[in-house]
Amino acid sequence: MTEIAGAVGVTAVAATELPQVLHGAPAAVLMIDLKSREVVYANAAAIELTGDRVRLPVDVDDWGDAAGLTDLGGRRMSETQSPLSLVASGVPVAGEPVAVHDAARRGSTATAEQREASEGRLLWVTGFGLAGTAPVAPEAASLESRALVVFLQLSGTEHGDRRHLEVLRDRAVVATEMSFTITDPRQPDDPLIWVNPSFTRLTGYTHDDVVGRNCRLLQGPNTDRSSVAQIADALRRREPITSVLLNYRKDGTAYWNQVSISPVFDGSGELVNFVGVQNDVTERVIVEQERSAALADAEASRSQLRLLAEATTQMTEALDVTDACARLARIVVPQLADLCAVDLIDRPGGAPTRVAVAARDRGDEERLRRMAVLRDYRPGGGSSTGRVLAGEPPQLISELPDTGAERHPGDPAPAAVYDELRLRSAMVVPVRARGRVLGTLTLLTQLPYGRRYGSRDLHLAVDLAGRAGLTVDNARLYEVEHAAAATLQRSLLPVVPDVDGLQVAARYLVGADGNQIGGDWYDLLPLPDGAVGIAVGDVVGHDLAAAAAMGQLRGVVRSYAWEGRGPGSVLDRCDQLVQGLEMAAMATAFYARIEPAGGDGARTVRYANAGHPAPLLLGPDGSLRRLDEQRSPMIGAVPTFGRSSGRVRSEAELRCPPGSVLLLYTDGLTDMAGEDADERTDLLERTVREQPAGLGAEALVERVLEACAPSRLTDDVALLAVRMAD
Fold it and tell me: Where would one find coiled-coil regions in this protein (predicted)?
């Protein structure tokens, strides 16, 4: 029995566990010599009953007393006509109950908990002589004087399950229906020397079919070699083992067999036999397999839903087409693929561009990009990608060729890359939106461990590609609209002119978030009277209407400034016009007049502020001043300012010595979601204050943006610096 039959995958029970038979009930097995009335073999479960303190062979009554066996009235086995005594006398016992009392206390080293657990257990005893149950091989004639006794546990306590006991009384054949085998390891190949009739009923093999042969005759085409190896290893170590494996009957039908094998030693410790107990557990295993398959299927469905939800969320948050495709590729690797590539076409019939790749091994990403250069992926070409781009159905290749020469015959360059990628399975599905094929999503697995794609995987890939298609199409529409809006906005911003005595630098940064652009603006206007007007503002909103309103507001400011009006009056007239013509809901604005230089080179600056962040003045001595005097409400926020209402915006005035620098900015530089606006303002002021004396306007703007520009713009930023010549 050193190579007893084995099969596909059910976990073997550890050798230290009790044999599991008849729905998992522990079975203790004894072998009795009928001539001497001695127990000559006890398996691990039987040894546990005696506390491992009885040395075999031992008289059956002594063994019963050592095990603490009593009848249901509490009398010891040696004091009654016990089932053990009957079997030892050659009388078969179909089934009798016995109780276990005080076994652990009689010289055992068991703990108190173990002693308490052993009290009052009910056992069902069945015994029969081997000579009366099946023929015995000539070379095993000694078995004719032997008998087997089997103990099955009925309940945890003596009085815990009387009804169960009555049921088992009506099923007295419970143990005789168990399949028993005995082998002789002293003979070559450890052959069977005895089997009982239940073995014949279980396997279809007769006594003459099997005696003298090894139990490997039960093996078949789906026998699990690892299970066989585990059993053989346990028997080489002379240790008991229980395992569930697939065996085959004589007619070729398969069944799941739960087999328990225990070694039999004689009084001198020599191995003389192996006793095997077999039980057909096919129904139980099938139920377990169906449950496992159902759980696996449910988990696979949940995983697919999680993948679809994650992909949708990630792609929705993407900033542009390339970002959306890159996010998709990173999500499907490694959850669905080892390699992923996304190819998009700019126009129907055009050549695709590989916009995103992802791989478990980063080196394979470069190989994927190289493959796109080497292969002709144009729509209608010979590749799977070309066919899908031309409108053919999704391509599923469950098993790719082993070599590149087979996959790309006559084309050595892509064949070499194919071999480097070690591909196993592939899917190419269309990235489609609004009835148009925008590109393809290619998913690949690699040898040796990559999965083999099937129809379920293809359905998931098609769903992913469909969601990607909508994201890509929306992102393209946004990019077109955003580019148009940004172009409009930039066209409305002035080209900063050269002005004698002033250094001027300006920057405009377009925010990345949102689906439109903003209404930030700046301006510098040389005036007819020799002064220079400077302005900065921000129309509320992030859309084309805000950009258009910004252009109108800038024009209004320029018109009133050209008339030579003071800063407060210019902003008042803007307020009247904005509210009267409903040009914009609200806007912030700062306007200042820089007067011509006096005899000392200093310039007077007069300004008014309608709710805009306070500009900064950096003096030639390194001092920093915030121009926050005389602030007034935003344009369009309150009833009209001006002569008709009697309310006029106040102005502030200051002298700026040569070398002074004015810095105007919008709130995109200081106001960011999730960050403290005061801290951002402090950072800006600290950055400006720390600049060295004599720094030019261009250098100041660059250093401010380097230190203060958000890593991710969520709003537009306008920046204007004016340095007064020394």
Answer: none
Residue 31 CA to residue 478 CA, distance in Å, equals 85
> Tell me, what amino acid is at 345?
I
pLDDT at 142: 67
Buried b (16+ CB within 10 A) or exposed e, 141-171: eebebbbbbbbbbbbeebeeeeeebeebeee
pLDDT beneath 50, residues of the chain: 1-26, 103-108, 114-115, 157-175, 514-516, 643
Report whether 489 contacts 538 (CB < 8 A): no
Give all strands (DSSP E) within 558-651, no chain letters.
Answer: 587-594, 603-610, 616-618, 624-626, 631-632
Distance linking the first and last C-alpha atoms of the chain: 106
Q: What is the separation of C-alpha 373 from the centre of its chain, rounded to a whole number of angstroms? A: 32
pTM (two decimals): 0.45
Residue 66 is encoded by which pair of tokens? 């050592």
DSSP 346-391: SSTTPPPEEEEEEESSHHHHHHHHHHHHHS--STTSSSHHHHHHTT
Residue 470 backbone phi and psi in degrees, to 5: -65, -40
* SS3 of residue 156 by DSSP: coil
Consecutive H or E run containing 439: strand 436-446
Amino acid 686 reads R
Residue type, position 79, single letter: E
663: left (phi over 0), alpha (psi -120 to 50) or beta: beta
pLDDT of residue 538: 87
What region, left, alpha or beta, does residue 216 occupy, with left being phi > 0 and alpha being psi -120 to 50 degrees?
Answer: alpha
Q: What is the amino acid identity at position 335?
A: Q
- DSSP β-bridge partners for residue 121: 100
- Predicted pLDDT of residue 81: 81
Cα–Cα distance measured from residue 464 to residue 337, given in angstroms and rounded to the nearest whole number: 13
Q: What is the bridge-based pairing of β-strands 58-59 and 353-359?
A: unpaired
As a whole number of angstroms, the distance between CA 690 and CA 273 comes to: 94
Residue 636: both structure tokens together: 């369009």
Rounded to 10 deg, the angle between the 321-335 and 282-316 helix axes is 160
Which pLDDT score is estimated for 133? 61
pLDDT of residue 403: 94
Q: What is the number of residues in the chain?
A: 726
The H or E element spanning position 719 is strand 717-724
Structure tokens that stand for 159 in this block = 């009085």
Residue 98 pairs in a beta bridge with 123
CB atoms within 10 A of CB 641: 24
Strands 93-100 and 25-33: unpaired
How do beta strands 93-100 and 121-129 pair? antiparallel
Q: Using one digit for the tens of pLDDT, what is the confidence trace for 384-436?
A: 999 999 999 999 999 999 999 999 998 999 999 999 999 999 999 999 988 88
| Rg, Å, the chain Cα set | 46
